[in-house]
Description:
By secondary structure, this protein is mainly α. It contains four helices and no strands. The protein is globular and about 45 Å long.
Amino acid sequence: MIFSVDRRLFELFPSLAIGVLILRVENTRYDDDMLEATLERLRTSFSYDKPQDHPHVQAWRQAFGKLGIAPSKYYSSVEALLRRALKGGPFPREPYRRPLQRDLPRVPRAHGRS
């Protein structure tokens, strides 16, 4: 695995510190992960009016703004997961799967595909 960061990121954020965590999850049985209990605890104890009011989410929104990314249009993964957790309902458990090659021709011409 190669992990690299463009040096320009450190120019925009001089105090940036990056860490990488690789782990292996052993509990693969549904409900052994205590996800539902964790989500419920988050929903009942979240003390801000909106997800974007949390200081950690605000930091990401400021970073997105510096990068020229509209933070109210494109959420960081932290904010997106927090929003989904607070909304309630089922939480996805399957990892994201990339579209199959056969689905690529459906991408609009504006993205270089026909």
